[in-house]
Amino acid sequence: MDSESFYIVQLFSQGSYRNAIAAYNEHPSPSPLLTLYAARAHLALTPPSPSSATQLLSRIPPTLDARAVGSLARYLAGETDDAVGELEELLAELGEQGLEEGDEVEGRFVRGVVGTVWVLEGEERREEGIEVLREAVELGKDQECLAILSHLYIQMHLPHLSTALLTAPSTTAFTSDSLLSQLLIARSNLATGPASKYQDAYYVFEEIKGMQGGRGEAVLGGVSVAQALLGRWEEARDATNEALEMNPTHPTSLANSAALALHTGKPEAAAQEILARLQAADAAHPLLADLAAKSSLFDDAASRFAPSATA
């Protein structure tokens, strides 16, 4: 892989999807592998762009990986039943393929896509998705599936499992302190603490931010969260504002901004305005779901203590 191609893959791995797409568009002769990464970057945007991904995929042969990414595009476009059916067929067709080590092994992306979609399908397929991802990590030494699995554990409020996975000798034997592995450990450190780990995470995100193309929404989000956990509210706000300047509708950046509002002197009305923007950008965002659940619990508790009418 040439240096320009490696740069695009690195941008994708660190979550700088817009920068990865821009770099791909400037590449004079992108390979099918790079086209797959560009298509996946379009699907990772908020909101995703399945049509752009599908257009890119039409330029390359319909390999197992291209078909898998195409199925993910259809899934995100709302064609869920057809996409799930095709992914089930692809997984059966794949067999043991894609478990060999190497970035350009055919079938390398299939398990990552399948695991992602199975998790999106909900609790009934989540465990199956986790097993698919584990197989890719344990047998195929797949760092991208490692990233998905680590993120999933954190999302399930099981950050200790993420940390155990990332620091296991069987994992560190193939991650070799790569940039992606450093990023994954930094994210786990933000979820677990203590302060020394928050500081370590901050250093990692700051280092990536200083790299060419590194100032993406995801990296700036990591900087913001680390700064907030260290009590540096103004610095956290600045990183979040920079992310919102890049993408005013980025849900994670909006959620961070809402969480920081009251810590940085904004009135409650300003926080509510940010939450309204988040509602418009991603009505299913975990922050909104958490707030709704807490509001419901409060209303339920308040109703039990309401004064009864007296004659």
Q: How many strands?
A: 0
Strand-and-helix sequence, N→C?
HHHHHHHHHHHHHHHHHH
What is the mean predicted local confidence, pLDDT? 91
Shape annotation: globular
Structural class: mainly alpha
CATH topology of the domain at 209-303: Serine Threonine Protein Phosphatase 5, Tetratricopeptide repeat
Strand content: under 5%
- CATH superfamily label of the domain at 209-303: Tetratricopeptide repeat domain
Overall description:
- The structure is a single chain.
- The chain is built from 18 helices and no strands.
- The longest helix has 19 residues, at 286-304.
- The chain has 311 residues and is mainly alpha-helical.
- The protein has a domain at 209-303: Serine Threonine Protein Phosphatase 5, Tetratricopeptide repeat (Alpha Horseshoe).
- It starts with a helix and ends in a 7-residue tail after the last helix.
- The mean pLDDT is 91.
Features:
311 residues; Serine Threonine Protein Phosphatase 5, Tetratricopeptide repeat; mainly alpha
List the helices and strands and how they pair.
Elements: H1 3-13, H2 17-26, H3 32-44, H4 50-57, H5 64-76, H6 80-94, H7 110-120, H8 123-140, H9 143-155, H10 159-167, H11 169-175, H12 179-192, H13 195-209, H14 217-229, H15 233-246, H16 251-261, H17 268-281, H18 286-304
Helix pairs in contact: 1-2, 1-3, 2-3, 3-4, 3-5, 4-5, 5-6, 5-7, 6-7, 7-8, 8-9, 9-10, 9-12, 10-12, 12-13, 13-14, 14-15, 14-16, 15-16, 16-17
Brief write-up:
With 311 residues, the protein is mainly alpha-helical. It has a domain at 209-303: Tetratricopeptide repeat domain (Serine Threonine Protein Phosphatase 5, Tetratricopeptide repeat, Alpha Horseshoe), CATH 1.25.40.10.
